[in-house]
Amino acid sequence: MYRNIPTNLITGFLGTGKTTTILHLLSQAPAEQRWAVLVNEFGRIGVDGDLIQAEAVDHAEVFVEEVPGGCLCCVGSAGMQVGLNRLIQSSKPDRILIEPTGLGHPAQLIEQLTDPVYGDVIDLRATIGLVDARVLSDSRYTSHPNFQDQLHLADVLVGNKLDCYSEADRNAFYDLIEAQGSSVKSAVMVAHGSLEQAYLDEPREERIALFPEVHAFKANSHHHHGQEPSSGDWHRIEGSDDGFYTAGWSLPGDALIDPACLRKLMTISGVVRMKGFVPSSHGQMRINATPGEWSAEALEHPLNPRIEMITTDLLDWQVIERQLRDCLENAC
């Protein structure tokens, strides 16, 4: 019934622009085809799935399934299997794009998708590995086993955010390609996720993970997630895994927030990733930020207000929530 569906993984560490890249790829989908997207996020609030669905609204043949709060890459991930099966059955897609969490190790997911269970259903093609060349000198990223294996297991390496690169950043990306040695890969630098669809059909190579012990650990580990009480109609969910911590808030629709205040909060709190949809006096804004990069863009299609933060240190999330409330435009 469903046979040999071309499928690609779009991997990348925190803030590499996976969602933007997927949206660009969806814009190139042939009009006669229906494409499907399976999205996994580190936090449980869920941001990317709704954004893809909203931004792709003009393309009637795009279907999105989101699996928040965990790792699609874990052994026997029920969320992955249920989400993927439901997506296939409901949309009968001509192509599937899978966006694992930026903190995920892709080896197990590749094994699952090439398992005999999906052998006649999924035609796993090139894994697209995104990297922001500006972090290639930052040991917080380059020393992380998941980061290294995301690059090692990719068939196409994409230096995204080219518009922000210096000459040193471009040279760092060239050095990264050279360091792959005998591993044959395609490589390209793009701005704003503008990857050409043709790269999806590059050859897929079988590779062994550099850090199989991390793969094994992830297979047997448990993600911590907790729901914490918040006063009023604010709702907070916390989580942690693999040295990173997250908290996400569902926000009341009438809570107008000053984006400039959020930017300041990110700077002083040590947050390494902030994203979400926040109401403001200028309409609903999409917040998308990493250290040194800030974006607050108006959303054409308003979504349920929420915000997600990821840190490398455990913060007092009650204190952060009070600071978030101080960002209300009517705060005293």
Q: Which fold does the CATH topology of the largest domain refer to?
A: Rossmann fold
Largest sheet: 8 strands, parallel
Series of secondary-structure elements, N-terminal to C-terminal: EHEHEHEHEEHHEHEHEEEHEEEEH
| Tally of discrete structural domains | 2
CATH C-level of the largest domain:
Alpha Beta
Question: What is the fold's blueprint, element by element?
Answer:
Layout: E1 5-12, H1 18-27, E2 35-40, H2 48-55, E3 62-67, H3 78-91, E4 95-99, H4 106-113, E5 122-124, E6 128-131, H5 139-142, H6 145-152, E7 156-159, H7 167-179, E8 186-189, H8 212-220, E9 224-228, E10 235-241, E11 244-250, H9 259-269, E12 271-280, E13 283-290, E14 293-298, E15 306-311, H10 317-326
Parallel strand pairs: 1-4, 1-5, 1-6, 2-3, 2-4, 6-7, 7-8
Antiparallel strand pairs: 9-10, 10-11, 11-15, 12-13, 12-15, 13-14
Account of the protein in words:
With 332 residues, the protein is α/β, with parallel strands linked by helices. The relative contact order is 0.15. Strands 1, 2, 3, 4, 5, 6, 7 and 8 form an eight-stranded parallel sheet that branches. It has a seven-stranded antiparallel sheet with strand order 9-10-11-15-12-13-14. The chain has ten helices and 15 strands. Residues 215-224 have low confidence and may be disordered. The chain has helices at 18-27, 48-55, 78-91, 106-113, 139-142, 145-152, 167-179, 212-220, 259-269, 317-326, and strands at 5-12, 35-40, 62-67, 95-99, 122-124, 128-131, 156-159, 186-189, 224-228, 235-241, 244-250, 271-280, 283-290, 293-298, 306-311. It has two domains: 5-218, Rossmann fold; 223-326, 2-Layer Sandwich (Hypothetical Protein Yjia, Chain: A,domain 2).
